[in-house]
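Case study 2.
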Amino acid sequence: MYIASVVLAVIIGTVATLARPTPQARPVSKTISLERRGGHTRHAANLDHLIANLDRVAFKMHRTLDNYEDNTGSPFPGQKTASQRKRDLIEKRSSMIHKRAPATHGLELQDIADGMWWAGNVSVGTPPQTFEVDFDTGSSDFWVTGKDCLRCQTPLKYDPHSSTTAVDASRNFTIRYGDGTSYSGPVWRDTVSIGNLVAEHQAVGAVDNTSPMDDSAAADNIWSLMGMAWPSLSRSGNSTFMNTLSSGNDIPTSQFSFSLDDDSAELFIGGVNPNKYQGEFIYVNTAQDFWRVHTGGLSLNGRSLNMTGAGEAIIDTGSTATLGPSTVVRELYSQIPGAKNLSEVNQTYDSFSGWYAVPCEFSDTVSFIFGGVTFDIAPEDFIELGQVSTNSTYCIGGIIAKDDLPSEYVLYVLIILLQTHNLPGTLT
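Prediction:
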C-alpha cells in the first residue's frame, strides 16, 4: 500500500519547479553543506569507478530485497524469493566485473570520487566521535568504522567503550556487496547527532571486519554510511536515524531533502531549504521500502518513448548514473543523432553491454515524467559521466541499460524532498 509522498525537484542537475509545503510552526533552520568538486568540466570518465559503483548499486538493491523479506515475511512485491534470487545471482556473479526542541538542520556534503558518494559529518557517542558519512537513499542501515577494523584505511574509528551512552545490542550485522566486498561487526545503541539534531539509542553498526577492497575504493576512504530509505529494508532491522527523529518529534516535519548542485550541496533535515528551489512542488506517491515512485517514463525532445507495463523509479543518491530497462534505453539512443554502443567508439569496452556513447556536443533534451509533469535533464548533465577516453569527441550517456533491478529505473536525483504523512513510527 502506498502511504507516503515524495516530492521531486531536480533530476540529474536540471532545475524544476516545485510546490512550497505547508508551513511548520517555528522551525529552526540550519544548513548542512555538500561540496561538489567535479562540476561540468570536460574530463575522461573513470570507467573502473563507474562499473564498480553500478555493480554495487545493483547488488545493494538485491541485498535490501532480502532485508525486506526478512522483516516482513514476504518477498518484495513482484520479485522472486530470496533463495531464488540468490541462485540467480550466483549464476551471474561469475560473469560480473538527547531529544531537543523541534529543529531543522542543513548538513554540508562533500562530493567523493566524482559524485559516487555524497558525504557529511555525523557524530556518534558521548563525548562525540565524528565521522565522514555517505548518505544513501537506496539503503536503510547506519554503520561506521569500528576501532578493531584493521583493513579500514581511516583514522576515524568508533570506540563504543569511550562513549558513556553506548549500549551493546548483543548482536552482529553483515552486509555483502556484489563486487565481493563485505562489512561486518557488532551493533551498538548510542547517541547519534547531525548538527543540532540528536537521536538517542540509535542503532549503530561498528564495522570491525571487511573483505579486501580494491585500491581505488580504499583510496576514497568511505568507511561509514547512513541509509535514508525505509526501515523495511534495514539489514539490522532497526529504526533509521530519520525514523528515530520523526518518532520523537525532534523535527518539525518528517521530511528531508538533498540539493546536490555543483556549488553548495547539502542535506536538509526537517523540511526543505527555501533558498534551494523556486515555483511549485509536484507530489507523487511512494512505497515504504525504497523511495519507489511511479513514472510516466522517458521522453526525448518532447517525444515519449514506448514503455511496457507500469513504470517505476527508485530514487537513489547512491547511484552514479540512471539505470533503465534495456528496451527503453535502446530506443532512446536509437533516436539520438550519432549515438553508438560504447564498444563501437572504443573496442576496449566490447563487453560493456547496455552502455552507450553520444557526441560530446550533445544538445538534445532527455526528460522523465512524474505526476504528469515533465522534468528535463540538461544536456551537460546527461554527459556528466565524462568522455569515453581522453580527448575523445564521444561522451558516455547518462542512462545505462540494466534489467535485473527491482524497479524500471534507478534515478540519481540532485534536488529531492521526501516526506511521509504523520504516521507513528514511519520513516521520512
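The longest helix spans residues 47-72.
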